[in-house]
């Protein structure tokens, strides 16, 4: 993870899975306390202790399934959290542990064990296992967390939504929207990320989110949400892709087999939204959408991600310009053209301007994103200057 974080240009990484006994032992062995209080370091990369858990619970006669992120300020606190959570489910299973525990009770346990620790509801719009999901979600933060709703000051938007979608609901104006990448494969770190103004300790990170301070959290890096597998409505068995408006016309029923459609994230956002598309709150924190560099290279070269040719081109660019995020966001296009092909440099420029074509994902099928670098008009010429990331 430290190796890939350096290649990506990510300076602070969540450990993930501190609840797993074997991984917790490895964290104790490999991590050393950093100068910034509450953070750790390994091979020059900072780490923050995190875990994702799945909560299964009944509330007011209804069943709920929800994923939550836990942030701990020390290995000692993480150990205490683990010892308490063992009462509610096995922590030894691969992936997230399944806990017979409400999200509200999880919050109370974490805060009772450490006033500094906090939780963040994960990928809040996915149909299953999320705070607002169409299949087992709530209609407000207070519906889930009751009188302690004020302790939830950040939400993870997930791959299937981005800030503009969340800005449409005024109930989220006080909330800081963060974007994280899962670490199933270290090479996928940085697909989504949070960009802070300066390095800060555990408490500083928490306070930046709690205060919704745009001078500390400068912007988030986002996946194109249309590419996620639950963006639009649909029914994959019948190959039916449906916009929310089309679904409502059919009363959310598949026009082929007449069974219920899987209602996607955009549909659910529109159900709760009280603002039109395109609305931007005054306190909104900016964002940037990106496509992973390997995917851009694969499209231009007509090869698969993971092939030797794509990996060689990736490493050449990263080693020349310092990191993947520097290549994707900050390196002037004329500089890229001196190291790679004009076609690839142009494709990166188009991604920066969000000039891409997307077939939305639906019902478990990922969307397809295309950079039309052969047919799109020439992008505006960029000023040649050095940027530091």
Description of the molecule:
It is globular and about 55 Å long. Strands 1, 2, 3, 4, 5, 6 and 7 form a seven-stranded mixed beta sheet that branches. Strands 10-11-14 form a three-stranded mixed beta sheet, with no helix packed on it. Strands 8-9 form a two-stranded parallel sheet. Helix 10 (293-301) packs across helix 14 (342-352). It folds into two domains: 2-226, TIM Barrel, CATH 3.20.20; 293-370. Helices cover 30% and strands 18% of the residues. The chain is of the alpha/beta class.
Topology:
Layout: H1 2-8, E1 12-14, H2 21-30, E2 32-33, E3 40-42, E4 45-59, E5 62-72, H3 75-85, E6 98-99, H4 103-113, E7 118-121, H5 141-145, E8 154-156, H6 163-167, E9 176-178, E10 193-196, H7 202-210, E11 217-222, E12 233-235, E13 240-242, H8 244-249, H9 265-272, E14 287-289, H10 293-301, H11 308-321, H12 324-330, H13 333-337, H14 342-352, E15 357-359, E16 368-370
Parallel strand pairs: 1-4, 4-6, 8-9, 11-14
Antiparallel strand pairs: 2-3, 3-4, 4-5, 5-7, 10-11, 12-13, 15-16
Assigned CATH class of the largest domain:
Alpha Beta
Low-pLDDT ranges: 379-389
Shape: globular
The pLDDT mean sits at: 93
In the CATH hierarchy, what is the architecture of the largest domain at level 2? Alpha-Beta Barrel
Number of domains: 2
Q: Helix segment count?
A: 14
Question: Could you give the order of the helices and strands?
Answer: HEHEEEEHEHEHEHEEHEEEHHEHHHHHEE
Structural class: alpha/beta
Helix amount: 25-40%
How would a textbook summarize the main sheet? 7 strands, mixed
